[in-house]
Amino acid sequence: MTKSEVKLLGAWPSPFVMRARIALNIKSVEYEFLEENLRSKSELLLQSNPVHKKIPVLIHRDKPICESLVIVQYVDDAWSSGSPILPSDPYDRAIARFWATYIDDKWYPAMRSIRGAEGEDERKRLLQEVGEGLALLENAFKKSSKGKDFFGGDQIGFLDIALGSFLGWLRVTETSNGVNLLDQTNTPKLAKWAERFCAHDAVKDVMPEIRKLLEFSKMLRAMMAASTPK
């Protein structure tokens, strides 16, 4: 299979795009990464994802697949090489999907909202919500990992990808707000897991530098401030 048969439309700061890249790396799939300018979306993106018009989009043999977790599951199904991403046991698979949905529907939106929080009380409330969510995920890790290195056991799996893709932005949130949310005191098992995850061969080359994410975050803040009615 050539690179031209697999294309990924994305942008480097996006944790959702990172999910697709990690899954492809786990399966040793060669692909062409097409960087999108989200202020001026390409025709290929608009044609490939006409419903949501957003990244990531995986194009495999001219067929587009949209939504990050759907893409991860597709990659697992379409390529038998490399480690399996989803658990083989139906119960374990259901639990991984449950927590991935929690991350996307509740935990990440709280973390994202901190940047635009109105007032100190709202900011503190959201930080507390994110911290409480990490405590829940700490317990989920204890159960899912069964004493091994990753949520998926010996290797990175579906839930590792779902949560690990946000680690860069979590560090940005900590730095920007002067707090520690993921550390040896609050979440010792997740803290060690995060180190292993970021050092993994499938992850380390696609995990953005925190410095670059901080610069990107400052740009987003400036754009939000400029668009806010005076």
Features:
230 residues; single chain; 4 strands; 4-stranded mixed beta sheet
- Total of DSSP H or I helical runs spanning 4+ residues: 9
Low-confidence stretches: none
Number of strands: 4
Rounded mean pLDDT score: 94
**How do the strands line up in the largest sheet?**
2-1-3-4
Percent helix, as a range, is 55-70%
Strand content: 5-15%
The CA-CA distance between the termini, in Å, is 54 Å
Rounded to an integer in angstroms, the radius of gyration calculated over CA atoms is 18 Å
Looking at the chains present, what oligomeric state does this protein adopt? single chain
| Shape, per Cα inertia axes | globular
Protein structure class: alpha+beta
Care to describe what's here?
Strands 2-1-3-4 form a 4-stranded mixed β-sheet, with helices on one face. The chain has helices at 15-26, 43-48, 68-78, 90-114, 120-145, 158-164, 167-177, 188-199, 210-227; strands at 6-10, 32-35, 57-60, 63-66. The chain contains 9 helices and 4 strands. The longest helix has 26 residues, at 120-145. It is of the alpha+beta class and 230 residues long. The chain is 56% helix and 7% strand. α4 (90-114) runs antiparallel to α5 (120-145). It is globular.
